[in-house]
From TrEMBL:
This is YceI family protein. It comes from Streptomyces mexicanus. Residues 124-293 form the Lipid/polyisoprenoid-binding YceI-like domain. It comes from the Bacteria. Belongs to the UPF0312 family. Signal peptide: none annotated. PANTHER family: PROTEIN YCEI (PTHR34406). Pfam families: CarboxypepD_reg, YceI. Gene3D superfamilies: Carboxypeptidase-like, regulatory domain (2.60.40.1120), Lipid/polyisoprenoid-binding, YceI-like (2.40.128.110). SUPFAM superfamilies: Carboxypeptidase regulatory domain-like, YceI-like.
Length: 304
């Protein structure tokens, strides 16, 4: 009797809460709520949630769960894909339909342990240029973001028996910068920015790998650009190994990202603004999307 009464009270409380939530929604909107739990069934704070519209494939909402594993998003009516991710765990995806004026009851999303990917075999792995990209994103002062890439580079990875002792080296031809605008690219090559005649290369040499669980690593090293060397850390996700490509060769893949402060490399954006030069902002997001082939006497040479 007491248990039944308690259940009814909880049911009324949840119903009242949902009704109150729905009453506070913007006109024509609905709400999605979820609770993310870890493999032990405990609430998981800090999990990343991405809500994508199924018709347009646009990301409509993105955020992290609160300390109790909860996430709430107010959405226009429609069908959505909701993906929950957390480091070291397998992403979970669910589809949901949102109706105007309706606040859906919280959905429970359980994240399971991630499958551990096998690390690359010890030895030398060379970057495969046709399947490797070095990209950057910078905010143009007062305007939209500028997207660009470097088209000429070489590098490789020496995998040690202990992965923490492995090394990565990359050499980028600074003059190969490409943002899709010839005038801007020539300006970026000039003494105002990269000064490619004096500093033709951008070099990165790693010093150590630090493991963070799952497929996450930090690659620490030294970046030399514009005649200045700085220590940087690249947040790296290891994507695994596969046999495939030109001759079914063994290759590995990883995605590494970092944020650079241009003034660390003596590229003084404030003085450029004072001189009336329209420039990108003080920080640049750098991304290396890498595929590397295991080097053997039989490794085919990728086409130019």
């Amino acid at each position: 009797m007491g248990i039944g009464l308690l259940r009814r009270r909880r049911s009324r409380s949840a119903s009242a809460g949902a009704s109150g939530f729905a009453a506070s929604l913007p006109a024509g909107a609905g709400a999605y709520r979820c609770e993310v739990v870890d493999p032990m069934g405990q609430p998981m704070g800090g999990a990343e949630i991405t809500v994508t519209a199924l018709d347009s494939h646009r990301v409509i909402a993105r955020g992290t769960t609160d300390p109790y594993g909860l996430f709430v998003a107010t959405l226009p009516p429609g069908s959505y894909s909701v993906m929950a991710t957390a480091e070291g765990l397998t992403p979970a995806r669910k589809n949901v339909d949102i109706t105007a004026g309706v606040a859906l009851p919280p959905e429970r999303i359980a994240l399971l342990p991630a499958r551990q990917l096998e690390l690359p075999s010890p030895g030398t792995w060379l970057f495969d240029p046709p399947h490797t990209a070095i990209r950057f994103i910078a905010k143009h002062v007062g305007m939209a973001h500028v997207h660009g890439r470097f088209t000429r580079f070489d590098g490789g990875i020496r995998i040690a028996p202990d992965m923490a002792d492995s090394q990565v080296s990359v050499r980028i031809d600074a003059s190969s910068i490409n943002t899709g605008n010839k005038t801007r690219d020539n300006h970026l090559r000039s003494a105002d920015f990269l000064d490619v005649e004096r500093y033709p290369y951008i070099d990165f040499t790693s010093t150590r790998f630090v493991y963070h669980g799952g497929q996450k690593w930090t690659l620490h090293g030294t970046l030399t650009m514009h005649g200045t060397s700085r220590s940087v850390g690249l947040d790296t996700t290891y994507l695994g190994t596969v046999n495939g490509g030109y001759g079914q060769e063994l290759r590995c893949a990883a995605l590494a990202k970092t944020e650079l402060h241009r003034e660390d490399f003596t590229l003084n954006w404030r003085s450029m603004l004072a001189r009336g030069i329209a420039v990108v902002g003080p920080t640049v997001q750098l991304e290396l999307d890498v595929q590397a082939m295991y080097r053997t006497p039989d490794t085919p040479t990728p086409p130019e």
